């Protein structure tokens, strides 16, 4: 089996050299991108569930109620 000295960081997915003694620090942007990529299926499902809810009678009522509250606040 081929052993690589580089392993992916479990938090951000960056390729980390195991031979380097300094600890790896995740780049905040890369960390966010990696987490968003990991959640892509849940994000897509949320969009479908939101559209489905807004098409329901309860969703239409909540939309009406929110718009009424906004109009009253101005």
Give a summary of the structure in a few sentences:
With 74 residues, this protein is mainly alpha-helical. 59% of the residues lie in helices and 8% in strands.
Q: What is the fold's blueprint, element by element?
A:
Elements: E1 6-8, E2 15-17, H1 28-38, H2 40-55, H3 57-73
Antiparallel strand pairs: 1-2
Question: Which tags fit this structure?
Answer:
single chain; 74 residues; two-stranded antiparallel ribbon; 8% strand
Write down the secondary-structure element order: EEHHH
Strand residue content:
5-15%
Can you count the beta strands?
2
Which ranges are low-confidence, i.e. pLDDT below 50, for 5 or more consecutive residues? none
What is the end-to-end distance? 68 Å
Question: Radius of gyration, Cα only, in angstroms?
Answer: 22 Å
The helical percent reads: 55-70%
Main sheet, how many strands, which sense, barrel?
A: 2 strands, antiparallel
- Global geometry: elongated
**Rounded mean pLDDT score:** 92
Class from helix and strand fractions = mainly alpha
Number of separate helices: 3
The order of strands across the largest sheet is: 1-2
């Amino acid at each position: 089996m081929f052993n690589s000295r580089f392993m992916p960081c479990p938090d951000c997915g960056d390729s980390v050299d195991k031979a380097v003694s300094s600890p790896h620090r995740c780049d905040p942007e890369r960390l966010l991108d990696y987490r968003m990529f990991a959640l892509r299926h849940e994000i897509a499902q949320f969009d479908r569930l939101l559209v489905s809810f807004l098409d329901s009678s309860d969703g239409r009522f909540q939309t009406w109620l929110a718009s009424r509250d906004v109009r009253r606040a101005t």
